[in-house]
Amino acid sequence: MSPRPVGIRLRIAATIALLPVLALSACGSGDPSGTAPAGAQAAPAPTGDPVAAVRKVDSVAALLPADVREAGALRVGSSVGFPPGAYYPNGPDKPPRGQDIDLADAVAKVLGVKLERQDASFETILPALGSGKYDFGTGNFGVTTERLKTIDFVTYINDGQGFAVRTGNTALGKKVTDLTQLCGLTVGTGAGTTFEATLTRQKGVCAKAGRKPFDVKVYSENAATLTALQQGRIDVIMSTINGLRYQSAQPASQTTFLGEFHRLDVGFAFKKGAPLTRAFQAAVNELIKDGTYARILEKWGTSASAIDTSRINPPEHT
């Protein structure tokens, strides 16, 4: 399917807030027949502002290129999709919230720069880094061997790949540990993601096992993926561990998390050879050292994904 305009994606993201809410017109096919579960409501966003007390650290800011220090601003391409990463709890006309938002804002404060945040669809951000449209990107971008060929990463969390089904569906058991468990099923996932790449690369595992292959449906909006699951047009979702776990904790979402499949480091993304990576790494490590990092992850319920130190371009987890 062809991607929808950014404005439409943002309006859809706003309708689902914590992803229990199903937008009436959020289907990937444009089918308007979907309905929201009875009583579905957006859960309130976590409170508290661990970023408020963060201050500029001159020794870290000095690692920025001179032209960035002089400009005092950085352009960030930000994928705003669903919690706990980044979403719109109060509508697209209000500032986004989420773990990625807090971490990027905290890093910017350590570096003494302002962020010029530009909302963009997930699949467009990495290509746009090479053209210079953004100075860096956020969107829960996992570090993979393929991406490292063209992108530099500064890690800030360890997340990865997981699965979820509609509550009550027991076809996959309690956990997905092998992709052959998906044989004969329809899997929904996001466009341009590591999930899409994994499913495409491993699609032959079912034939080798003498079983019917799984089918992959790719969506440009998270709302469309969830709607497809609720309507029975897909059997299972493959997405981020933290996102699916957060979603399943909201009773109105009617989804059940099926465990971790593959862990990945997640990082701020830069075009290859960008001069910003050392400064960002030092800023993340400063936040880890002073406790701000732990407070941000605690706020968003992702403490289990904390890292001990930020790294530049670590190898993909195997």
Please explain how this structure is put together.
With 318 residues, the chain is α/β, with parallel strands linked by helices. The chain is 30% helix and 20% strand. The chain contains 11 helices and 8 strands. It has helices at residues 6-16, 58-61, 66-71, 99-111, 122-131, 194-201, 205-208, 222-230, 241-248, 277-290, 292-300; strands at residues 73-78, 114-119, 136-138, 151-166, 186-190, 215-219, 236-240, 255-271. The strands form 2 sheets. A 5-stranded mixed sheet has the order 6-5-7-4-8, sandwiched between helices. The protein has a 3-stranded parallel sheet with strand order 2-1-3, sandwiched between helices. The radius of gyration is 19 Å and the shape is globular.
Please supply descriptive tags for the structure shown above.
disordered N terminus, three-stranded parallel β-sheet, 318 residues, five-stranded mixed β-sheet, single chain, alpha/beta
What is the fold's blueprint, element by element?
Elements: H1 6-16, H2 58-61, H3 66-71, E1 73-78, H4 99-111, E2 114-119, H5 122-131, E3 136-138, E4 151-166, E5 186-190, H6 194-201, H7 205-208, E6 215-219, H8 222-230, E7 236-240, H9 241-248, E8 255-271, H10 277-290, H11 292-300
Parallel strand pairs: 1-2, 1-3, 5-6, 5-7
Antiparallel strand pairs: 4-7, 4-8
What is the percent of helical residues? 25-40%
Please tally the β strands and state the result: 8
Q: What is the number of helices? A: 11
Shape: globular
Mean of all residue-level pLDDT scores: 87
Strand content: 15-25%
Give the biggest beta sheet.
5 strands, mixed
In what order do the strands lie side by side in the largest sheet?
A: 6-5-7-4-8
Low-confidence stretches: 1-42
The gyration radius over C-alpha positions equals: 19 Å
**N/C terminus separation:** 31 Å
- H-E string: HHHEHEHEEEHHEHEHEHH
Structural class, from secondary structure content? alpha/beta
